[in-house]
Design a protein that fits this description.
By secondary structure, the protein is mainly α. It has helices at residues 2-10, 20-26, 29-50, 58-69, 84-96, 101-126, 131-139, 154-169, 173-184, 194-201, 207-212, 214-221, 225-238, 257-269, 271-287, 293-305, 315-320, 325-342, 353-365, 372-385, 391-415. Helix 4 crosses helix 5 and helix 6 packs parallel to helix 8 (154-169). The longest helix is centred in the N-terminal third of the chain and has 26 residues, at 101-126.
């Protein structure tokens, strides 16, 4: 009996697909250095920003969470999103026994780690071997840096979406749909991404293939009707997509401002990739001159299609991008170069480029108010799905973003600037 037990105890344990010890052994020194460095900066950012007073919309988000914590289930009239994340924060306040702003910000910063891990997991699934530098870029994304540490709903929503995409790519469609239902309870208008998730879960390669396998496609898409139905029920009940009934967020009206500014921001954040891509585009246009029509169309679309007439838009958008000719021309050139350069970037899963681009345009155009925060959702998905350039270009991009992220934190602390 003892001999048999000893043989069983000495028998190697079966590999269940994940071994923490093995992961540690496989971790390269580069990953350790980058991880420890960014982890230290993450803690420093928490300490620095915790000393600051509440920012703009954070006042409403924190106040709503405090009301729920105290058992007051009324909603603040200025809140535009379903307060699901606020209820979650109130629950964590009860568990921790505190409602101090600093403590809630630390809880939010810990929740933000779910977005970082979700991005890493998705990138590792789609482009294995590039997840370290890609995640370092994601953490250092200047538009998102401050939002990791203050109480806004943008980063928690991105976390849910990234994990939903990961689940769809992994074939876990029910989990993906459930995560999207939770997303509706945090930022309801992001239900639009159900279309992308349904396509990833069951891509359509051709109409004949769709006719042959329509039952398979139908069964794969069914789970994603749940978040859509939840959103439609909310919309019917509330009477508008925005929880706050206001003309600042009208339903079903298309505006091009966010689309063009998002492309402009992407081009400015990826200068090396854009320069290299423009060279490739020009070489292709030398062989096929008709391609030169594309930059003319893009520049004309910006010149005649960009408007900034929302009453809350800042001076930069309304004056410098619309009425000041030098900056308007410069912005048009950057937007044109970015589109021509980055439209050739390979996207995974295969065939996802077209639906991702179309949904990104619709998602951004649906918002009248121009807000850099709105760019984060499609940009995060694109960064997770895109093919990387040469390693030195990607590491240089991370260095640039890290410097800009530090500058952004400095601007928030010293100037009170927040995007």
């Amino acid at each position: 009996m003892n001999a048999a037990r000893q043989r069983v105890e000495n028998k190697p344990r079966p590999d269940r697909g994940f071994s923490f010890a093995r992961r540690l052994e496989e971790t390269t020194p580069t990953v350790w250095v980058v991880g420890v460095f960014l982890g230290a900066l993450y803690v420093v950012a928490i300490v620095i920003l915790n000393s600051q007073p509440q920012f703009v919309d954070e006042r409403s988000h924190f106040a709503q969470a405090i009301m729920f914590f105290r058992g007051d289930w009324r909603r603040l009239p200025e809140l535009a999103t379903i307060p699901g994340y606020h209820a979650f924060l109130a629950l964590l306040m009860h568990v921790l026994g505190t409602s101090a702003l600093g403590a809630v910000r630390i809880v939010h910063a810990c929740c933000s780690l779910a977005a970082i891990v979700g991005f890493f997991a998705l990138r590792r699934r789609l482009w294995p071997g590039t997840e370290t530098v890609a995640t370092a870029q994601f953490i250092s994304l200047p538009l998102m840096t401050v939002l990791l540490f203050i109480i806004y709903t943008d980063v928690p929503a991105i976390a849910l979406l990234l994990w939903a995409v990961w689940a769809a790519v992994s074939g876990r469609t029910i989990i993906s749909a459930l995560l999207l239902c939770l997303l509706v309870l945090v930022r309801q208008h992001e239900v639009l991404w159900a279309v992308l998730l349904a396509w990833i879960a069951c891509p359509v390669t051709s109409l004949p293939e769709l006719r042959r396998n329509w039952r398979t496609h139908f069964m794969a898409v069914i789970p994603f009707t749940a978040p859509v139905a939840l959103f439609l029920a909310y919309w019917w009940w509330n009477g508008s997509i925005s929880l706050w009934h206001t003309d600042a967020h009208p339903d079903l009206k298309i505006h091009g401002g966010n689309v063009f500014v998002a492309i402009l921001a992407t081009g400015l954040l990826l200068p090396l990739q854009v320069l290299k891509g423009v060279g490739q585009f020009l070489r292709a246009a030398y062989v096929r001159p008709w391609l030169l029509i594309a930059p003319l169309v893009v520049f004309a679309a910006f010149w005649f299609g960009f408007h900034s007439n929302h009453p809350f838009n800042g001076q930069f958008f309304s004056e410098y991008l619309r009425h000041f000719t030098p900056t308007r021309i410069a912005a048009g050139l950057v937007i044109t170069a970015t589109v021509c350069a980055l439209c050739r970037v390979k996207i995974r899963p295969d065939g996802a480029a077209a639906p991702l681009a179309a949904l990104s345009i619709v998602f951004l155009a649906a918002s009248w108010l121009i807000e850099p925060r709105y760019f984060l959702v499609p940009l995060s998905l694109w960064l997770a799905m895109r093919e990387h350039d040469e390693p030195w270009i990607e590491w240089a991009t991370w260095a640039l973003w890290l410097a800009l992220a530090v500058l952004m934190v400095w601007a928030v602390v010293t100037l009170g600037l927040i995007l």
